[in-house]
Amino acid sequence: MNDWHSAEEVLEYAVSRGLVPGDAPLEAEALSGGVSGEVWKVSGPQGACVLKRALAKLKVEADWFSDVRRVEREQEAMALLSPLLPVGRIPRVLDYDADGYAFAMSCAPEGSESWKDRLMQGQFDADIAGRVGLLLRTMHEASRGIGEAEKARMADLTFFRELRIEPFYAAVAIRYPKLSGRICALADELTEETPDVRKCVVHGDFSPKNILIDPDGAPVLLDFEVCHWGNPVYDLAFCIGHLVLKGLQLGREADAYALVEAFCAAYGEAPARLLPHLGLMLLARVDGKSPVSYIRNEQTKERIRSLAYPLIREELSGEPLAAIATMLQGGHKK
């Protein structure tokens, strides 16, 4: 397998796969937004597509490796979920190169924007958050009814362990030995082989970075490589954690809470174990193997830690939204 070191190599690959004609003017543009793969947009007179290739070593400072065969899981998950979701909510798989650990997919509608970019620009739109919450609800509820063969194909947790349990839960447990028992128990809640724990298709990377907002305000979901048959609480904690972090970074706590409220209202009843997993997500994004790039101020990091500790220790109880409101109002300290 050869990496794509230049636009010329990407175009040569796209032509070799029959995705674009070799005798037409073509352009290749590297896309940003991820640490686990190379992503390029290839455009020509007949249209455009996106190429993605998995990397063995992820693009972070820490040594973080994952099996490149996860690209097979990604395109399988997209094919599985496509008929379960409204048209246009996920890209279509156009080509799969098993030997090259790469695949091609359709582009999002022209004019689509990254939800993360919009949030970082201060666009805290509760309507968008509600649409995203409804999309997640639809994915979770619709996937509960898939057949046993489909469940079996999504049951292997290798990639979820490599890309989520190890860099988030395990890495943070090592850094915080006094919390390690609780953190390991939380990890077990995501991986136990019981029907009451693993009961729907979980995206595993449900964050604003992986959600585009099309010109009509509808979300388009990307990046399915850690998709698995699992515990839905993970997706909620992962996404809500990102919304909280952006509110804290930008000093927009009240607006962040409005997003969380709209997201949860559209999703429906929150899983009972949301709060401790949310605490772990917050702590992992400053002290795990994949810290968010936009939080550099040590005072902000300390505030996040002080909010995460009581959630992990389960000192905040009751209805999740009320607890999150209390947390964002600064009601808990280390």
UniProtKB/TrEMBL annotation:
Domain (Aminoglycoside phosphotransferase): residue spans on this chain: 28-275
Coiled-coil positions are none
- Keywords associated with the record: Kinase, Transferase
Q: What is this protein called?
A: Aminoglycoside phosphotransferase (APT) family kinase protein
InterPro entries listed in its UniProt record: Aminoglycoside_PTrfase (IPR002575), Kinase-like_dom_sf (IPR011009)
Pfam families attached here? Answer: APH
Listed GO molecular functions? kinase activity
Q: Which organism is it from?
A: Cohnella phaseoli
